[in-house]
Specification:
- The structure is a single chain.
- The protein is mostly helical and 236 residues long.
- The protein has one domain.
- It contains 10 helices and no strands.
- Helix 3 runs antiparallel to helix 8, helix 3 packs parallel to helix 9 and helix 7 packs antiparallel against helix 10.
- The longest helix is centred in the last third of the chain and has 25 residues.
- It starts with a helix and ends with a helix.
Length: 236
């Protein structure tokens, strides 16, 4: 990674870590497009490596609000989704994967605007885990499905549960990518170079996260999901 690329990516990672540490999601949406533009060879492994310490910190910080039962159902779907993501990588091109994921995300986010407040049922949790496994393994972006099913829950529950689910899922995705020979030392070196910026953003979010408005957070979830879908469509 050249000095100019490192400086640009460090700024992006700092902002993204602050956003995810404050809301529980958003890191991949912010980092993935820039990393894909400036250092595409590092995708998606470097992105997944960076999210490991970030999600651990958020999950530990708000561990008392963790929805353990729902996390287990999401993880069950995530296991199947990770395998499905690898299968799709062998069949579809990245452009096709980005387009499919982008369309599905925008449709799901739009539908939530017409639905009343709800508590996610078991099938919704498993489905969200399944889709997240596919999208995060193939593109590095896995936040929208989980954010949508948790949009009506307390902010602390959303942050802790999403962070725990992301953490387990990222380990699964990295394990699968490693077993198929899609990881290398360059990915680890890139993640280490960006680690200081990530930690700085996470520390700042520790102060900001307690001041979030629940209604504003829900609108941010929907806007985030639509934006992520549009980004994926543009990348395709």
């Amino acid at each position: 990674m050249s000095p100019s690329t490192w400086a640009s990516m460090s700024a992006v990672v700092l902002v993204a870590a602050f956003v995810q540490g404050s809301t529980g999601f958003g890191f991949a949406l912010i980092v993935a497009p820039m990393l894909g533009l400036l250092a595409p060879a590092l995708m998606p492994v470097c992105l997944l490596l960076l999210m490991l310490p970030l999600n651990f910190l958020v999950a530990w910080r708000e561990r008392r609000a963790l929805d353990i039962r729902s996390s287990l159902w999401i993880t069950l779907g995530r296991i199947a989704g990770t395998a499905g993501g690898l299968a799709l990588m062998l069949v579809l091109s990245m452009r096709q994967l980005n387009a499919l994921t982008g369309i599905a995300t925008i449709v799901a986010a739009s539908l939530t605007l017409m639905l009343p407040a709800f508590t996610p049922a078991r099938h919704a949790l498993i489905g969200a885990g399944l889709v997240t496994g596919v999208t995060e393994t193939t593109t590095g972006i896995g936040g929208p499905p989980l954010a949508l099913v948790y949009q009506h829950q307390p902010a602390s529950v959303m942050r802790s549960t999403l962070a725990a689910c992301f953490l387990v899922g990222e380990l699964l995705s990295l394990g699968m990518l490693w077993m198929t020979g899609r990881t290398g030392w360059a990915h680890a070196v890139g993640a280490i170079q960006l680690l200081p910026a990530l930690m700085a953003g996470a520390l700042v979010s520790k102060v900001a996260h307690v001041h979030l408005n629940p209604r504003g957070l829900r609108w941010f979830v929907v806007a985030f999901s639509v934006t992520s879908g549009a980004v994926l469509l543009l990348r395709s």
